[in-house]
Design a protein that fits this description.
This protein has two helices and five strands; from the N terminus they run H-E-H-E-E-E-E. By secondary structure, it is an alpha+beta fold.
């Protein structure tokens, strides 16, 4: 979701303390870089959007930040993120 917070902040650590896990850290193949780009694109920076899962997720194979343009434009000021996982 669109959490607008960085990793290792009090809020992020509070979410992790509940037992939820960050799919970016769990994924066998993981993308890095910023997720908010203000319609300007780019990679350098920290993510502020996350997909958290509980302990019922058996494995996360891929975490990806989707940086594609559609019709020459970004669909949002945030890059979409997705994770392939096994329930």
């Amino acid at each position: 979701g669109d959490f607008n917070l960085k990793k290792n902040t009090d809020l992020y650590n509070g979410i992790i303390a509940t037992g939820l896990r960050d799919t970016q850290d769990l994924a066998e193949i993981s993308d890095n870089g910023k997720t908010y780009h203000a319609y300007n694109g780019g990679i350098d920076g920290d993510p502020i959007d996350f997909i958290f899962v509980n302990n019922e997720i058996e494995n996360v194979s891929t975490y990806k930040i989707v940086r594609d343009l559609y019709g020459g434009k970004y669909t949002s000021d945030h890059y979409p993120i997705y994770a392939d996982m096994k329930f």
